[in-house]
Automatic annotation (TrEMBL):
UniProtKB keywords: ATP-binding, Iron, Iron-sulfur, Metal-binding, Nucleotide-binding
Recorded family membership: Belongs to the Mrp/NBP35 ATP-binding proteins family.
GO biological-process terms attached to the record: iron-sulfur cluster assembly
Shown chain mapped onto the complete sequence: 102 to 362 of 473
Keyword ATP-binding in record: yes
Coiled coil: none
Name of the protein in its database record: Gamma-butyrobetaine hydroxylase-like N-terminal domain-containing protein
Highest taxon of source: Eukaryota
Record organism: Paramecium sonneborni
GO molecular function, one term: 4 iron, 4 sulfur cluster binding
Keyword match Iron: yes
Length: 261
């Protein structure tokens, strides 16, 4: 059972968080943060208590994706080490982006892991069914430290259909394997688009490698999300697409499948 890990292994304010899921990619710009956020709200729609932690210190995008760029970190006066999460639509969120300041661009590698781990452990998540962690892109020291400290129950890997991305996904699956984190699903993003003139489905990056991935690594769920203008439009407006589009929209259906997996 992939969820057999006990909560006693979780530290700080994560003790009452039932499952911690990493959303990961090897490269930036593939849609990882967008998918992490929309997966969070899809889980909420299924009735779960959910939080999202943006673990990217160098390029935190969560505050922009939910229109909270001006939000500041807040801790109660009597408990300065207990950071309060920022709520958005009933979901608890935390990001280094709320810390503001320009110093974040010059933090050295080894400091980053400890800052990120401190931030997630000091946030008052309280009882959650799921905490979604939007990982920094890559498979380096920071990602490995996060895996070791947070004891993820599973990982979702986000990619695009090019061959180079496939090679990266394999790296990602292998990293999680070594760290004993099961890869629950792989999401191929921006896989195809439907021409608004002729309705033809184009796959600009080719057929992709999802079947091969599933066969080779036994990943239970492999999903494709189309390149779709509204995803980027609503993300820029700070309005998560699964909260904005109608329930029966294709994009919402795909996210529901991901949340159910
Ligand atoms: P990452 O976290 O991997 O760096 P982001 O989630 O920030 O990537 O997405 C990068 C950009 O691509 C954003 O502008 C986002 O709105 C856009 N985007 C992501 N997925 C899609 C999609 N399926 N269709 C259209 N635009 C997308």
């Amino acid at each position: 059972n992939v969820f057999s890990q006990t909560n006693s292994q979780k530290r700080g304010n994560l003790q009452n968080v039932n499952k911690i899921i990493a959303v990961s990619s090897c490269k930036g710009g593939v849609g990882k943060s967008t998918i992490a956020l929309n997966l969070t709200f899809s889980l909420q729609k299924l009735g779960f208590k959910v939080g999202i932690f943006d673990a990217d210190v160098y390029g935190p995008s969560l505050p922009t994706l939910i229109g909270k760029e001006k939000q500041q970190l807040y801790a109660p006066e009597d408990k300065p080490k207990e950071i309060l999460p920022i709520e958005f639509n009933g979901v608890k969120t935390m990001s280094y982006g709320y810390a503001g300041g320009n110093q974040k661009a010059i933090i050295r590698g080894p400091m980053v892991s400890s800052i990120v781990i401190q931030l997630v452990q000091q946030t008052q998540w309280q009882d959650l069914d799921y905490l979604i962690v939007d990982m920094p892109p890559g498979t380096g020291d920071i990602q490995i430290s996060l895996c070791q400290e947070l004891n993820f129950n599973g990982a979702v890997i986000v990619t695009t259909p090019q061959r180079l991305s496939f090679i990266d996904v394999v790296k990602g699956i292998e990293m999680f394997d070594v760290l004993k984190v099961p890869t629950l699903s792989v999401v191929e993003n921006m896989a195809e688009y439907v021409c608004s003139n002729c309705n033809h489905i184009h796959r600009p990056f080719g057929p992709g490698y999802m079947n091969m991935l599933q066969k080779q690594f036994g990943i239970a769920t492999a999903l494709s999300i189309p390149l779709y203008g509204d995803i980027s439009k609503y993300s820029d407006l700070g309005s998560p697409v699964v909260l904005t589009l109608p329930e029966d929209h294709t994009i919402n259906n795909i996210y529901r499948q991901l949340a159910n997996s």
